[in-house]
Amino acid sequence: MDRMRKVFTSEIKSIDEKEQTLVAYVSTGSRDRMNEALDPQGIDVSNYRKNPVVLWAHDYSAPPIGKAIWIKRDGEGIISKVKFASTEFAQEIFQLYKDGFLKAFSVGFMPKETEDGDGD
Question: What is the model's pTM?
Fold first, then answer.
């Protein structure tokens, strides 16, 4: 199957300016703008944990803006703690999250199975 990307608007749970980190949900089972949902219970992050980089806009040709210190599933979805790189661009993105200009996260994944439905 093709790689898919889903954008999820989230409430940031915490920001630590000294550590340059934030904690936020990166996905839940909520439907997105395309009326699609990613089931948090079905996500497998074992391969991601081997190199947990955070890319800007899924740009695989650019250096990462950060890394996931941890990522886990809970009752609401997938939550992660992200440490931002010390590069100028990564710090600019961190500032935009901190100031509330950025509120969304996007995950790239390859679905193992899909289900058709009307969202009911």
Answer: 0.83
